[in-house]
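Entry 14. Structure prediction run on the chain below.
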Amino acid sequence: MTEHIDEVQIELFVLNSPSVGDKRGVISAHLDSCIECKELYESISGFYRDVQNDLDGENRLPAISRRDLPVRQPGGRLPDRASVQQVEMAVPFRAARWVMKHPYVAGSSFVGVLALMVAMFLVLPLKTRDTNSVSAEVRGDMMVFLNTRGEQIDQFSLGEKSASQLKVSRVVFFDLNHDGVNEAFWGQRSISVTRTNLQLVCWSSKDHEVVWSSDLTPRLRFPNKPEITSDELAVESIDIGDYDNDGKVEAYIRLIHPYFPCLLMKVDAMSGKEIGTYLHVGTLGKPLFLDLDKDGVSEIIMAGVNQAYRAACVVVLDSRFIDGRSPTNDEYAIDDWHSASERAYIRIPKTIVGAAFEDEVKYNLAGGPELITSDPSFKVNVEELTNPSLKHTATLFIRFGPDLAVEDIGTGDDYDILAEQLLKEHRIRQKPNRTYFDEFKKTLLYWDGETWQNQFSLNKRYLEALAKLKQPS
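Output returned:
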C-alpha cells in the first residue's frame, strides 16, 4: 500500500518553505499519483488562498481582524469556509473603508459621507458572488472551475500528465444534493510505477474537496489480441441521472479504446460505487437515453460497429441491466465476461454500394442515434465507406420505431451519386431504390442471446432478467 506524505510536509510544501528543500520533486510526483494526499493538498491550499484573498482582495467584504480569521485544523476540514466567502462589495462598504483609511482627508465631511452611506445601503443591495461551477478550463497543470460569468471559483491540481490528457469537454456538472451548487465529474489517469489506473473523480467546489474517486480500470484479456489492454482506455462521455427510475442518481461512463473495445460503466453517483459494466467488442457512439415503451425506465441506445463481425450495429440496453459483453466470435473472445442482457442487438450488413468496395473497406459504421420526433422513434446514420483513403462517401439513414422495427431507410446525396456511378460502370447490377431497400430490411440480423435471427427478436437473457425483476421479493 502506498505510504502517504505527512500533513505537516504538505503544508510546508504549500507555503514554499525552505525546509522542504530537494523533497519538492518527490512530493509533487506523489501528489500526481495519490488522490488522498492530493485532496489534503487542495484543502490546505484552499485555506491559505481564502485567507490571502480576504486580507488583500480589493473587491471583497470589509477586512476582518486577524483574530476573527479561522484557524486551519490539521487533519480536519475548515471550521466555516462561508466566513471567508468572496462576494462583490457594495458601494457603501467601499465608502466606509475609504473613510477609515483616510480619516484626515474625510475630515468634517464624515457625517455627510456617513449619511450617504446609509442612504445608498438602503437602495443598493449586497451582490453575492455566483459560486456555482458550470464549466472548466485546464491552465497549466490545474483544472479551473468557472461560473456562468466565466469567473474562477475553484481549482484542482491535476498534475502535468493528467492535465495534458484531459479534455475539458468531458467534464460534466450535476447538482447531486440539490443545494444549488454543482458537483464536477471527470475521468483522469493516475500513473504509478507499477500500473496505470483510470479514475472517475467527483469534486465539490462548495467544500473544495474530492467527494469520491472511483477506479474505472476493468480487467481485459483477449487471448487472441494480447495487445489490447486497459491502459489505453479513456473516458469519452459521462451521463448523469435517474434513468432506471429507482429514485437514485447514477452516472453512466463511456470508456473507449483507440482500437476496441468500448465499455459503458454504471456507478452510484453519490458514492462512486460500481453497479455494472457492459463491454462491447467494437466502438460505440454517445448514448441516447430514451423511454421507448413509456414505463418510466429509459433504454440506452448506442450505435457503432461490431469488430468481430465487421458490421454496423445498434445496441439497446435496459438501464437496469448493465452487465456482460456483446456478441463476439472466437477471434475476439474475451476471458471472464459472460454474455450480456441487451434488450436488443441489431446487426446491419453492407448494401450493394458498400459491398462493391469489399476489398478496400472492411466494415460499415453506424453513427448517432438521434431522436427525430416527439414519439420515441430514432434514427442512425450508417457510413458504408469507412476507409479514409477513398474519395467517396455513402450514407444511409435508418429510422427505428419504439418497437425497434425498421420504419424507413433513406439515402444521402453522396450515396445516390455513387450508386449511379457504380451502375454505369457495371459494378452493381441494380439501382438501390425503394424496392431494393424493402428487401434489404430483411437482411438485418438480431441477436437472441444465443444465435443470430433473421426476424426481430429480444435477447433471451434480457427476458430472463426482466422476469426475475418482476418476481415478488
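The chain has a mean pLDDT of 84.
Filed with the rest of this week's runs.
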